[in-house]
Amino acid sequence: MAPSIAIAHDYFTQLGGAERVALELAAAFPDAPIYTAVVDGDTTFAGLRGRTVMTSNLQRLPLMRSHHRLAFPLLAQAFGALAPDADVTVCSSSGWAHGVRQLGRKIVYCHTPARWIYDLSRYTGGRGSPGYIAGAALRPLLRQWDQEAARQADVYLANSTEVQGRIRRIYKRDAEVVFPPVLVEAAGDQLPLPGVDPGFFLTVARLLPYKNVEAVVDAFRDVDQRLVVIGGGPLLGRIRNQAPRNVHVAGPVPDAALRWAYANCRAVIAASWEDFGLVPVEAAAFGKPTLALRWGGHLDTVVPDTGLFFDAPVPGAIRSAVDRFDPADFDPAHLRSHAHTFSVERFVAAIREHVARLS
Questions:
Q1: Contact status, residue 179 vs residue 347, Cβ threshold 8 Å
Q2: Are 136 and 117 in contact (CB under 8 A)?
Q3: Percent of the chain scored above 90 by pLDDT?
């Protein structure tokens, strides 16, 4: 008899890489119920339609669905109250979903150990920010909860060698690296961005402090190159208001518009402190190179002949990489071949193998 499977993910309220991966996990196990803190169907991907989704009590509060970060003090308790009735639960976790109450076996696919515990200053934008002050007050209790949740898991999987090392350092656990899949299909429909002509540089990121998008925008001041910024988040209004005229801040866009942007850019700029670095792989699927911060997950996803590195997320270093960039140095066919090493099929096969070992 086949084991029963459940999927757990932090929350479905945004168009992020972790949400794409969680939905790919769900697609690999089409009969599995999905457990999460809150869902906002208007601001996340449509892949939840038709699935059995079990939410926490926070779902009853409209403000928690539209502003999930306000739920920060309540999420540990919310996940502790979720108890998937399954032989194996696969948790897609950036720090919350691995805390679901354990009835069967548990596999944690870790995007990163919780940034708001172990990297709070970078995550919130500095010690003087309101987010840092709130996080610092709660950090001792959350750390205790987080460490206990990590001990309860049967298997830990890491999305990159950077996260693998972080899991070993923070949780004292070994984790196999299973790269997440490329989830933007290059052959899909495309929708042009209004008022944008081909030939721009592109940044795709959630607009949070640690993504360093403001530094990318500042790198394009007083230059004759154009930049397009795609992504939503708390900094959207500020970035849009401060952007120079040669920077188009599109905000969150549908996949068809994202595909058009990848297909029509010169190169992607990835300046974030990234756990995996999915955007360079998505760009490579369209035959486009990446100018990336030499840190973390980018070291897995930007390899020789697929991009350039800069050493600090500051405007001068980013601008220097833009000046050094020559599209003739990169072969689109080689880039597409590189992207295929991060296929959905490889990801699904690895996850199913780990589930089978626990069954």
A1: yes
A2: no
A3: 70
Q: What is the pLDDT of residues 11-28, one digit of tens each?
A: 998 878 889 899 999 999
How is 205-274 classified by DSSP, letter by letter?
A: ---SGGG-HHHHHHHTTTSS--EEEE--STTHHHHHHH--TTEEEEES--HHHHHHHHHHEEEEEE-S--
* Residue 314 neighbours by CB under 8 Å, 6+ apart: 215
Per residue in 89-126, pLDDT (tens digit) is 999 999 999 999 988 999 999 999 988 888 776 655 66
- Measured at the alpha carbon of residue 215, what is the angle toward residues 210 and 220, in degrees to the nearest 5? 150
| Residue 323 vs residues 213, 219, 236: alpha-carbon distances, Å | 18, 11, 26
pLDDT of residue 304: 87
Render 262-277 in DSSP notation, one character per residue.
HHHEEEEEE-S--SS-
Number of residues written out for the chain: 359
Q: Is the pLDDT of residue 88 over 70?
A: yes
How far apart are the C-alpha atoms of 185 and 254, rounded to whole Å? 13
Contact of 305 with 285, CB cutoff 8 Å: no
Q: At what angle do helices 344-358 and 17-28 cross, to 10 degrees?
A: 60
- 230-233: which pairs have CB atoms within 8 A and are 24 or more residues apart? 230/202, 230/203, 230/204, 230/205, 230/257, 230/258, 230/261, 231/203, 231/204, 231/205, 231/206, 231/207, 232/14, 232/15, 232/43, 232/206, 232/207, 233/14, 233/206, 233/207, 233/208
Q: How confident is the model at residue 336 (pLDDT cuts 50, 70, 90)?
A: very high
pLDDT of residue 148: 95
Q: What is the mean pLDDT of the segment spanning 56-67? A: 82
